[in-house]
Amino acid sequence: MILLGHNPQGDPILLPIEPDQKIAVVGISGSGKSYAAGRMVEDWLACGVPVGILDPVGIWWGLRCGADGNPNAGIQIPVLGGMHADAPLPEPEVAAHSLARLGQSSVFDLSEYKMEDLQLWSARFAENLMGPGNVPESPAHIILEEAPIFVPQSGSLSKHNKRCRYAFAHLARVGRNRGYGLTVITQRAAAVDKNVLTQCGSLLLLRIAADIDRKAITSWIAENAAGITKEAYDTMLKELSEAKPGTGWLWSPQWGGGFTKLTVAPRRTLHPNARQRGQLLAPLSWNPYSPTPTSAWQHIQQVGKWALRGSLVCGGIALAWYGIKFVLYALGTLFLLSVIARGKKR
Ligand SMILES: Nc1ncnc2c1ncn2[C@@H]1O[C@H](COP(=O)(O)OP(=O)(O)OP(=O)(O)O)[C@@H](O)[C@H]1O
Ligand SMILES: [Mg+2]
User: Fold this and answer.
1) Which of 19, 51, 116, 133 has a beta carbon 3.0–4.6 Å from 105's, enabling a disulfide?
2) CATH fold of the domain at 2-276
3) Closest CA to 21 of 183, 207, 243
């Protein structure tokens, strides 16, 4: 089970480990969304669930340190790209394959990408997850930090906006049948493509202030479940507008719960702030993305391959040279014979 937090009576709020579910985490800046999503990711990773984190902010490297910043007390998850990279960001095809087929969890840190490159990389990643040959070995979960970058409801962030939005909307719509789940993290409910938001079976609501976002949530709830009293709903909305960081409500009809008020449980790993940007990470004990050292036998094989290629090329050139010579001799002979034949006729 995932320990998300505790209710006001102090009872634990546990979620089943179902990585193929979709969850939305909504709240204004500083309300504790990334912290809460990190809490869930810690438990998924502890249970061996493959998790791919798309991080355009550059904070998820904190999983590699203990909550106090101890670089030796974190989780062994490769950070790819960004300021704390264990290895550069791989091609999206490689990233999708390693998550789906090899079950390799990774932080894909996109924080140093221009928006155009970020959306293109992400679109190709999502398309490949849904492409042939990438049915996951076991259900995998994808985290979209600052989801409106990937699935905006309106506006265009780059020329790849539409492709990116479509790829993730497709993943949200039919990905569960393949074994993909999604966590959508957003400051504004109204800023996320409503086709994606309304696919989410659970909603973690932290502090929400804007009226337009309340409306987006109301329509989400209306699509997901009936039967909630107006009083309960109004009370929740009122409390949400004043909620402290890390406190809010979980609405989870898919796991049999209605509204549950909660405080998110403390993290085991670091939730970094701007001052901790320069922090060094302990090297990974094993990094699947770094090139593996080549053995002597692999060297011999490589030399053999090059020798074979070289001799094929030389053979081809020699063959072409003698072929051309043969054709020229043949044409010359034919010409001479025709001259002789004409001379005899006269
Ligand atoms: N459950 C919690 N327990 C303790 N501290 C928390 C909790 N939730 C959030 N915080 C603290 O609140 C601050 C803001 O949290 P967080 O960065 O997760 O906000 P956010 O909603 O993701 O903001 P933004 O949208 O700007 O990224 C952080 O300093 C974090 O340590
Ligand atoms: Mg955040």
Assistant:
1) 51
2) Rossmann fold (3.40.50)
3) 183
